[in-house]
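Section 5.1 Outputs to date
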Amino acid sequence: MSVVHLFDRVFCFVVRIVFQGQKFYCPLCNRGYSVFFQMGNPPRRNARCPGCGSLERHRLLWTGMEHLYKKGILKKGGRLLHLAPEPSIARRLREVYECITADRAPMNVQVQTDVTKLCFADACFDVVICNHVLEHVPDDRKALSEIYRVLKPGGWASLQVPLVGEHTQEDLSIVDPVIRARLYGQIDHVRQYGYDFMKRINAAGFDAIFLKKNSFLIPSELDRLSVQCEDVVILGLKTR
């Protein structure tokens, strides 16, 4: 074990002891905490798990996945492609799937590739995880079609994006980062998705699932998970 790995394990152990409690719960750690840390700009209260670093979208997605496993809508096991992988949820995914990590940047991934031109064969993955990626991609329709292509029939994709309102707002001619931040929430976002994102998912061939958090979590569970800024789990099923 490397010195860095040992330090990380010791640090995480100390953090879990110091902040243990019951006010908040992280399903990725499977632990209770007295606090979650603030995160983001502007800061979001109770956003980041002190143990594994999960954010609201990771905790809601994992809880939604577990709900859909129990319902028989999603299947566990098989080969999974994790695009722009997030460490907190990647650790748990490796317990269930054979995982391949990929991104445009070569750092900390197994494969360097572009989501609009994936370097994988047709129908070679059972699952694709693509969380908070598509709002950065100018040709998101091409990206969705590529994700659909590499999935096996019966496979599914997590397609989490920030959602605001009913209609997607985008103008690809806008390149000023200040204007992008004002319109779309971040300087590197090229659009602000609305709930009509479902139509783009369907147009790529998927059956879209928008699973609202209050349909499977009661208020006390929502408070403990602290997922205020996320409302839905967004999935695409490849049924044919």
